[in-house]
Specification:
- The chain is mainly alpha-helical and about 70 residues long.
- The protein has 2 helices and no strands.
- The longest helix has 30 residues.
- It is flat and about 45 Å long.
- The model has no long low-confidence stretch (mean pLDDT about 85).
Length: about 70
Amino acid sequence: AYDIGLGIPAEPLFRSMARVLEDVIDILMEKQVFVFTELPEAVQDKLNKRKQLREDVNALTNLIAEEDDIL
């Protein structure tokens, strides 16, 4: 694992910065600064995969929470 110094692991920082970048891209598209298809295809694919993964994780989290309510 990478270390950015001071004993801080880089991976959580990279993940949080990637999420910040995704949010900035979403805001810029909402404000019609650019459209999604103007991004390189590889970037579009990566953003779509990350968004789908986030939706899947959220759906599972909600399902687990609903099951906890039943019990």
